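Input.
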Amino acid sequence: MQIVLALVIGALFGFVLDRIGATNPTVLIRMLSLRSLGLMKAILLAIGVGSILMFGGQMAGLVDVGHMSVKTAYAGVFVGGLLLGAGWALSGFCPGTGVCAAATGRKDALFFILGGLLGAAAYMITYPSVKATGMLDAIAGGKVTLGTVPGAKYEGLMAMPGDVLGVVLGLVFVAVAFAVPEAPRGDAVPAPAE
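Output.
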C-alpha cells in the first residue's frame, strides 16, 4: 500500500509541477536569472506551508515525524549542492523537474536524466578518491539541526526548540513568497508553455 500511495502522491506532485511551469526549462532559467519569480514564489510558499503544517502538527501531537532522520553534515554536501545548482542553471532542470519533464515527453529531459545517471556512475567510480580528500568527514558534530530536538542524541545549533523554529521559518518563507514581486526587473511575465 505504501508503494501505491507513493506513486499516487508522486504523480500528483508531477502534475502540479507541470501545471505551474516547472517542467519548462525556459521558466526555470527565467527564475534562476531573477527575471520571472512566479515559480520561486510557488516554491517558497510550498516550503513554508509544508513546514508550518509539519512542525505545527508535531507540536499539536497530530503528526509523528519520528521516522524522519537527520543526515550527517559534511563538506561534500556543499560541493554537491554547488554542482547541482550549476547543472540546474545550465540545463534548466533539477532532478525532480527533469523526471517530470521526461514524463511529458520532453527529449531534452531524457538527456538530462542520462547525464545525471552518468554523473552518479562517475561518483561511484571515484568514491574512494573523493573519500580520501576528507570531504565526506562529519563536520559540526555530524548530525546537527538548527533547533534542539527533544530526546535526540544530537545538539541543535540554537537553543530554540526545533518545532518552534520550523514554524517560524515556515512563516518567514510564506511572508517572503507574498513579498517577492512576479517580475522584479519590470520584465513581462511569460505564460508557461503548454
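The two ends are 33 Å apart (CA to CA).
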